[in-house]
Every structure is written in C-alpha cells, then in structure tokens.
Amino acid sequence: MATSKKVIKNICRDYVTIDYNGVIDFKLTLKDNIRNNSISEDDALFILLDLLYQINHGLKYKFFSKNLFDLITDVKKYNKENKKYLKEKILFKKHYYHELKQVIDYIISLAKERNIESKNITIEKPKENIKNRKKLIKTKLKDFQHNDLCCILNLDHTLNFEREKVLKNRIVDALLEMSFDEDKLNNCSTEDIKEILNSNNESSGMRNEEIIKIQNVRLYKLLDEFEDNYKIQLEKEEKLKKEREEQERIKKQEQEREEQERIKKQEQERLRKDAEIKARKLKIENEHLQKERQDIKQIIVIEKEIKTNIGLLNSFDDDLKNNGFLNYSKREKIINTYKSLYELTSEVNKFPIFLKNRIYQEFPNLKSFMEYYKDLINYKNLSDEKHNRIKKLNERILDDEIKDNPEFFKNITDPNKRRAIVIDEKNVKVNAGAGTGKTFTIQNKVNYLIEKRGISPKKILCLCYTGDGAEDLNKKVNENRDENNQVEACTFHEFCRRVAKKCRINKGKTNRRLLKDIIHNYSMKLADDEKLIKLIDYFSYYINSPADKEDINTYDELLNYEKERDLKTLRKKFYESGANYTMKGETVDSIGELIIANYLFRHNINYVYGDEYKSKLIEIIQRFLYSGNSFSLINLELQKEWFEKFISDYSWETYVPDFYLPEKDIYLEHFGIGHSDNEKWLGKDYEPQIKRKIKYHELHQTKLIKTYYYYLEDGVLEEKLEAILRDNGVTIGHKNPKEILDVLQKTNKIKDFDNFNKLIESFINIFEAQNKEKNQFDSFIKMNESEIDGYKRNRQKLFLDIVRDIYNIYYESNEGKRIDHNREVSLALELIQTNRYSASYDYIFIDEYQDINPIRSLLLQSLQKITNAKLFVVGDDWQSIYKFNGSDLNLFIDFDKHFPNSEFINLQENRRNYDRLNHISSRFIMRNEKQEKKKLISKKRNNPNPINIVYYSLNPKSNKVLKLYSIILRIAKRNPKSRILLLGRNNNDINEFTNKNAIFQSFDYTDKIKCLQNPKLDITFMTIHSSKGLEYDDVIILNFKDKLNGFPNKIEDDSVLRFLKEKEKCPYAEERRLLYVALTRTLNDVYLLAPTYKESVFIEELSNKHKVKQLSLRIDKNLEKNFYKPHKSNEPFDYRKTDIKCPNCKDGKITVVRNNMNDPPTQYTRCSNHPDDSYHYNGGPYWGDLEDYIFIEKCPNPNCGGVLIRDYKKDKLICTLNRQEGCKQTKKINLDDYY
C-alpha cells in the first residue's frame, strides 16, 4: 500500500529542510531508507511530488504540461530497472528549478508510454532582481507626505525638497538591506511601512538589529552628513555662480567692443566700395560714351559702304529667288559673290539695338540679306530637320517646277519622290524604304531629264548590281526608244568590261571560276610538306571559329555554343564517318576535346572517347562472386544487395572519363578551368566534381592525366598535351598528312573543304572589294600578335599564312590572258585613274546603292572626276544585306564624306505594305542605332495583324509541315490565285518540308514548290537574299530556330574576317536587316513559322516588344495519318546501312531492311554481310520510319542484342527487343541535334 499523504508530509518534514538560501537538504537517511527498503520507492516518489507542491503552487503551469502533471499525480509505481538515486542538494527558486534529472527522466519515460507530450525541463536559480525590489519600495514611498517623514524621523524642522529626496533614497536602501522579499512588499501598505519604521518592538516581525538600522540615530547621522555636504555644495555653487557672472560680464564687454570694431570696419568698407562703384560707373559712362561715338562713326562708314554697294544688295534677292534650284555650285557662287558684303554687314550685329534699327530702317532689305546669307552657309540638305530659309526656298522652287509639269507627275503622289525627280544637284542620295519605288524613281528621273531637260540618253549611265536588275532597269528606261538613242544601263562588271574593251585591253571572257579553281586545286595538288602540315593543322585543330568572349559568360554557355559546331573527330571523318568504329564517342563535346582527339589520332595514339569507366576492383569482386567458391553459394539476392551497397560506397553509378588510352591504361580528363573567376565561370559544383574524379582514380589505383581549358586560352594545348603524354611514357607517332588529306578529299560526306573554300573565297573577295595591297597581309599578321585569346591567335595566324599563299597564286593568275571578275573592277579603276579611259556622261545613276563596296565607290569617284557627271544614287540602308560579299554600309550612311556637298532625300510613301507592318518593321530595324531614321507612310490601313506567328511542335516532325500546309490553306481560302513566297535563311531550309511526304514536293531545276494536295497553288521558295527587290501576295518565313544556323544565323562572321570588316555594335545587325527584307516582301500578310521549343530571339522580340500576335491553326488529322508517301519500290528489298559494327562478325554493319514483297512491307535489322546467316546479327523487328535509321544506336544493355530506335510518341530511343524480350533500355534524345 502506498503511504498516505499525511504520512508523506510528515516524512518530508522529517527528512527535508529548507534553509534561507533556498537550498533543499535531503538528509542521508532518506537515501539510506530508500536503499534499505524502509521507505518504499512509491513513497519516495510521493515525497518528491509533495515537495514540489510545497515549493511552488504553480508548478503545473511552469514545469509540466497539463497532461503530464495529471500523470505525475497518478503515479503508483516506480520502475526498479530505471531506478536512479536523488542528488543530495537541489537548488530551488520561485519560477525556475534546477533539473531534477533522476525523477524527471522517469516521469517523462512514463509520459512517452502513455503518448503524453512533455516540455523540456530546465530548472535553475535566477539572479536576484534588486531593481524590481527597489522600484517596488519607491512606489510604496511615493505616497509618503512631507510631514510623515518628519514624524517618522522625529524631526523638529522642515525638510526641503532636496533633503526629502535624499532621505527617501536612504530609506529605500535601508529597506533593501532588510529581509523583505517581493511578496512581502506587495502585501505591505504604506501605513505598514510607516509602522515598521516607527516601531521599537518585535511585533512588526523584524529583528532588533534590523529595526536599529532604520531608527533615528542612523537617519540623523545620515541627515547631518547630507546637511554638511549640502552647505558645502551651496557655498561652492555660490562661488561658482559669482565667477560665472564675472566671466559673463567680461565676455559681454569684449563682445560689445568687437561689435563696435566690426561695425566701424563695415562702414569703412561700404564707403570704399561706394567710391569704387562711383568711379567705375563714371569710367563706364565715359567708355560707353566714347564707344557710342566710335560706333556712330563706324556705322556712318558702314552706311557709306552699303550705299556704295546698294546695287549688289538689291540684286541679292534676284540672284537668290530667280536662279532656280540652289544646288551646291549655285550656292557657292552666291556665297562668294556676296561674301564681302556679308562680312561688312555682319559688323552691324556688334552695335547696340538702336543703331541696328537705325541701319535696318535705312536699308529695309539688309536684315533679310543677312538671314538668308547665313542660312546659305549653314544649309545641309532637304532632309535636315532644322529650320533653314534656303531649304524652304529650294522646296518651293522644286514644287513650283512640279506644278509646271502636272501631266508628268499626275501618277506620282509622294512629294519627296517628285522632288527627287526634279532636283538638280551634283550628288544626290535618295534613301528609299522598302516598297517606296527605288527603281521607279530612277526610271522617272531619267525620263524627266530626257523629256524636260533635254539631256541626251547617251549622256546617262545607269549601273546595277545584278544581271536581272540591269535587264529590268534597261527595259524600263529605254522603253519606246530606238536602238541608237538608248540609255546605257548595265551591271558594274559589264561596265568595267566595256572600259577595258574601249582601252583595247583584251583579257578575253572573264573566268568566273578562277578563284574557286585556285582554292580547290591548292589542297588537291599541294606538294610542299610544310604547307601540307599547316593545312592539316587547320583541319585538325582550327576548323571551328571560336566564340566571342564578350558573348560568353560561363563554361556551360561556351559548351552549348560549341556543341552546335562541327565537333566530329578527324578519326570519324577519316574512316568515312566512323565506319571502322562505333558511332559512340566520335563526336566530342568541346573544341578542346576535339583538339585532343585529333592530336591523338594524328600521332597514332589509340584512344577511346566517352566510354564508361570500368573499375578493376569491381570486376575482381564480380569474378569472385560468380567463381563457384563457397561465398558464391550465398543467396543471389544477398549477393546483389551486398554488391550494390559496395558500389554505392566506393563508386559512381556511371563515370564516363573523356579519354582512355588502352595501350598505357591511362585516363585523360579535359577540365574547364580557366583564368577567370572559376566559381562564376564553372559554377559551384564543377570543382568538387574534379576533386571527386581525381580521388576516384586514386581509390581504384588508375592513372589520370589532366588538361585544362586555360591551355586552350593560352594557345598551348597541343604543346602541353604532348609534354604530358611523353612524361607518362606514351609514344608519339606520326600519321602521314598526305594520307589524311587524300582520304578526307575523297569522302563526299565531309563538308570541311567546302566551308574552308567558301571562307577563303569570301576573304579574298572582300580583300579585293576593299582594294587592298598585297603587303596588307603583313599588317594583318602584326595586328594578330595583339590578340589575347591564344586559340584565336594561333588559328588566325595559320589562316593568314594559308590565305596569303593562295592569294599570291590568285594574283599571279590574273596577270595572264584571262582575269577573275573581281579584277574586272580593279582593272577598270586603274584605267580610269591613269587617264587611259575617257568618257562623257552628264548623269550617273546607281540602284541599290546600300550594297556598294569600297572599290566600286572609288570607281565612281574616279569616273565622276574625269566626266564631271552628276551622281544620283538610290538605296535603303535598312536593306544592306551583302556584308559577307564586301559591301560597306558606312559608304551609304556617310555618302557625303566620299561625295561632298550632297543632297539627301527620304522617300516616305510605301505602296506595298500595310501601315501596321511598316510600323513594326521600322521599330524592329531601328533597334540598331546605326541605321538612318525614316518614317514610312502607307495608305493601306485596314489590316490590324499583317504579321502572324504560327508555332509548331517538334514532335512529331510532321507537325511543322502540316502547320505550313494550314497556313497555305488559309491564304488560298482568301485568294486561290495568291502568289505565295516561302523564304528561308539558308538554301536547305526547304528540305525538311519537302522530304518524302505526301504534301509538298520540290524540284532541282526550279524554285517552284508543288503542293500535292492542291497542285494549282502558286508557291515559290527562295532565300531572303535572293528575294530582295521582289514582292509577292503572301510570304511565309521558315526556320525561326534558336540554333547556330537558325534565324538569326549566329555565325554572322568568322573571326578571321574581322581583319577586313568591323563588327557592328548591335547584335545580329545584318540578320536584323535580313528579316526586315523578308517582312517587307509581302503585299498582304507575312507568317513566321517557329518551333514551340527554342524559338528564335527575333520571335521573342516581335512577340514581347512589338506585340505581334500568335495565330492558332488546326492541322488536318486525316492528312497527318497519311503524312508519309506510300512506298513504291521496284526492288524487293530496301536497305539503310548504319555505321554500327555487327557485334558478332565485327565486320558487317547493322542494317535496316524493308521487305517490299510482303503486303504490307515488313522491316527488321540484320547484319549487312550475311543477312540470312544466323551467326550474324539479328536485331529483331524495326517499326520506325525507314529514314529514321540515323537515330539507331547499339543497345547498351550487355544482355540484349537489340538496337535503340526512335519512338515518335515520346521523342526517345527504345530497344527493338522491347516487345519481344522486354528490354527496358531507353535513351532521351534532343531533336535539335538532328533537325
């Protein structure tokens, strides 16, 4: 039976005492009795619980949760297994307690068993809060009256405020020294304190010594001390007060004296200044009077001079307004004629207003003369927006001439176009936006000169850039003219040939293939070993143009940029796209890895790229598990579990090093560490991965050699790699460069030579277009030495060496009987500059002048110099898209620098496009601040959305073709006879829309596209470059992909072309102009076909900034089902051979076979060598599209013999044995790598 509470309380009194300091003493007998079982454990627990009640009544709110407190009160047993003995002393205080660990642990364990929450228990003794007690005492004493204090202290004199305040503080200190706790003070009233302080007996509950402390003797003593101190303090204060007053008096006297001095000085200064001002005024008045007398004398002289030249002054107005259009020569003549008069009259501006008015009154036309003459000097051109009287006068003169010829101008509504036709200036530039009628302006200008000005047609020369343009212009300007009275209209090259012919220089027919043949034969017939090695070095290491560092911020961005480059290894290209190797591992991830792979191949070092690391330690353990020993008898599930645990602890699931050199058992990693801030450049996770890879090789005791990205930045990657390989005992061999070159040239799949030849051709064409000298290559090489990027520096040096060698051959070849078309222009220029050619032209017209290049500009300057002809050029800087061919936009924008004193006119009326399209395209092109501002105006205003974005999905690939067909159906529904133009950024953009489907078909011999579903539709495809100058009813622009060769094309210029062309500040400046050309080809609507994934930055800009709407179109579901053409083959079998070796014979290739003899045809994969031999590979059925064999990869599952093919539904690769044998192997694919 548990002891009753009364007994427990008695036990508590017997065994527990509480001293004054708040310490609970547990007598040893309590602990002994528990040990000796004289008191049961239950009783001991109740003793403790009751003790807790006594210590703090509010224990359950401070110490335990409600449920736990209830549990404690119900405890009946004490678990002997968890028995803990109590400490001898437990510190106690009101709100917090020292941890009663032995008891509390047990109580909490019981709480857990009953699912009752407990709080964290910490009991500790807090510090005494003296401030609280002092504050409380002061609060109690606040009610004390002055008389009460006197009464308490038996004082017979009155306390002042200071003494009363000090006395109260002393009483507070005295009460604090007494054993009053806060509870006692809380319950004590002011009257109680008075009674305590006045009491002399023990009835107050206080000890005698405590009462004595507060009695009168001590207080009188304290008060006497205070009074003595107070008197001393008063004396000190009085003394200090007198001292301060004396100091203040002295200071005040000093300040008064200083103030009097200051006022005296101010008065003296004022008198001095007044005197100075008076003197200055007198001087100014004298000077003014003297100057006025001088001005009057001068004005009298000027009046006499003007009267002498009054006839000249009166004739100015006639010369100005009756002299026709004031072109540069007329303006210069007038300026020179009246220069002395203007210099004389300009002095009038220096005189006071009353004198100026006097002379203006005497000569009423003088002010007008001065204003007009000044505007003559400041006149620029008709396009200048600043107010100018001569500009207004010229416009009025032109408009009057137009009014005099109403019949001629009845069909021309644009006022600026009319002015361009009648204007007569030495050099005129007409900036004409798309659809404003550039050729129309030239045609009418020529007709006006012949019909109205009487200019002979033979005195007019019209030059164009293309044969079609020249033919069209020739037809228009010579319409209804006889053969003997024709305007000369031709291309620049034709004109240059005529110049040579007139000078009796017979170079025969131009060899248009001369440069191409020289470039092609250079590599084919190269015998010089040093030059051959340079060429192979270029193809091995420098075939790719590097990214511009200012466009790249991180290593991942660099890799994403480089992945769209040609990163196929030389070994892959050498063996016909990897025929002797598997596809895997032959396309690397970066230019750095490409250089390493090609170096290894060229130096006969066998390597494996991108193969999974196979740990020898793991192989040994696997062999042990399956060797048949006693351990292998363990349950297979346990073996698998143990092995997987080992792998997770000591290995990655898959680790793929960059390179492996099997002959030396060496692994090679190329790390992306650069010179810059690597945390920003690589990201936070990259460097820990490097350390993990290094530690991984240390753990498995395999050799790892390392190269770094900064080797590439410094241009020393090949040298560093060779040194590292030699240090690790790798033999450096050499593959015959001639053999490499011969094999690459014979491989039709390799585009390196085409790209290389085009780059060389473009470089030399621009070099020629800029009329550079041969020795300019030395300057380029010197410029290249300052290039910071080592890879770019090495690449450009190698390229310059090669291109200079080719250019020397080209230069010598042009010295023969036939010349290249570039040399036609330079030859004509030489003949004109040496005065061997003479001609008589009054007017020279140039169409599409925005495409001018430096050598043609120089040709025009030279031709104008010998003929004194007037030059009239028409162009649009917004449509300058032939920079790759040497055109220089600056020659158009800065026309007046090359042809001074030019007149500028902007054509504004656009008759082709809707106003909304003009607005969007103009804002789009003007993102490039270098472009000249133009405001195009169109009367076609009833189409709110002339530009529409149509999105297609990449999966399935038929979706984009079906979306294109939906757009064409929409156009045909509105106008069945609409002429539809498909525009591509590149020539091959149409291929993905016409390749083996049942909707569209293209032909090699024409640019027409046949719609198989509606053959009557008029559809044409061409590149944007080819479309310039043309217009169609509706336009559809293809290939808005965010890719290297998308739109915009991100390979705007190879870095080597920077020696010849300055990079524009605006990103994709030429591509932006190219899109402007594409948008403005339409008479009605233009449609932009873009993917939903990775859309072009141009689509984002048009959509977000220019609010171009998205057009949602449905596709024909029936046509989607029958998208691909039914296969018609005369052969019983169709084969599509992959580059994957047969895993059995190691010789044949895995091939997709379609058996056309079955109905419907069946498809499967077999070995190419022995398709009917069971020894060779049999990969099971193939249910994909036959042309998707490009996706095929060997299934990586070692226990599977299938291959991975494309699953259209999920855009991933799945195993062909998935259906038969349940192989679950899959692989995600990125369609951007294939499309």
Characterize the structure shown.
It is a single chain. α1 (5-15) crosses α3, α37 (776-784) packs antiparallel against α38 (790-813) and α43 packs antiparallel against α47 (1069-1079). This protein is 48% helix and 11% strand. The strands form six sheets. An eight-stranded mixed β-sheet has the order 16-17-18-15-19-20-14-21. The chain is extended. It contains 49 helices and 29 strands. By secondary structure, it is α/β, with parallel strands linked by helices.
Give a brief rundown of this model.
This protein has 1235 residues and is α/β, with parallel strands linked by helices. The protein is 48% helix and 11% strand.
